[in-house]
Design goal:
The protein is mainly α. 78% of the residues lie in helices and 0% in strands. It has helices at residues 4-25, 29-37, 43-63, 68-88, 90-93, 98-117, 129-147, 154-160, 165-189, 195-203, 205-219, 224-245.
């Protein structure tokens, strides 16, 4: 990124939109932000811009409640899996295989959207958690390292273990925070997170937070089901476009 002003002008409305979606339905900031940014830049650059606003919004979500310590005791195998999976795939996002990364992101978005549109809900009994939690974490880490998006399979897994709503929101914040920090580590090691990018990423905290506040305001005035349908449909279209873009 040699000229930061065009990047700043492009990223600001995208992060406002991403924060807005997160404010309405509680997630979607990295999915929307990276999904739209890779239309204009390399996946590693898009993921680097995500770091600061994602850390701030997710740490806030992780700590906003009384369930942090119990969730950490329950979910630490998954968190270790996320770190291990991200480290294992560390070279992929920064290796220059941009077309492959964009196609992988498109497929991940389509899977995520299809699960949402189909209202797919899995149920995982407690006896399966000791071995399934680290596996879900490792796969999430690999997807994070390859695409910069950390919703698959973390979100379906956390929904499937039967957490109450408030605990689920905090658990998502915990998972996203760990994924963001692991992603920042591999981008820094790969040279994709230079000082100039840190500055632009930091500036995106403001539009992301403003978008979250606007989304939270709208949440009480529209039916969440209608918004979620439009959100997942848009992701499906965007994912399909990204997956097919490598063909032309």
């Amino acid at each position: 990124m040699h000229d930061m002003l065009p990047t700043l002008l492009l990223a600001t409305p995208i992060f406002f939109l991403a924060g807005f979606v997160k404010g309405v339905i509680g997630l979607g900031l990295p999915t929307i932000a990276v999904g739209l940014l890779v239309l204009f830049m390399a996946p590693a650059e898009a993921a680097a811009l995500l770091i600061a606003p994602s850390i701030v919004t997710n740490v806030w979500q992780m700590l906003a409640g009384a369930h942090f310590r119990p969730l950490l005791r329950r979910l630490w195998p998954m968190m270790l899996g996320i770190v291990a999976g991200t480290a294992a795939g560390a070279n992929f996002l920064t290796s220059g295989n941009a077309n492959v990364a964009v196609a992988a992101l498109g497929v991940a978005l389509m899977i995520y959207a299809a699960l949402g549109l189909g209202s797919v809900r899995f149920k995982i009994p407690p006896y399966m958690e000791p071995w399934l939690a680290p596996l879900a974490g490792i796969v999430t880490g690999l997807v994070t390292a390859g695409t910069g998006v950390f919703a698959i399979p973390a979100v379906p897994y956390l929904q499937a273990i039967g957490l109450p709503r408030d605990e689920l929101v905090q658990a998502l914040g915990l998972s996203f925070t760990v994924s963001t920090l692991a992603l920042a580590a591999i981008l820094t090691r790969g040279g994709a997170f230079p000082l100039a990018v840190v500055g632009v990423s930091g500036l995106q905290i403001v539009p992301a937070l403003v978008g979250m506040v606007a989304g939270q305001w709208l949440r009480g005035r529209v039916k969440p089901a209608v918004f979620q349908f439009c959100f997942y449909l848009g992701l499906l279209i965007l994912g399909g476009h990204l997956a097919l873009r490598v063909l032309y």
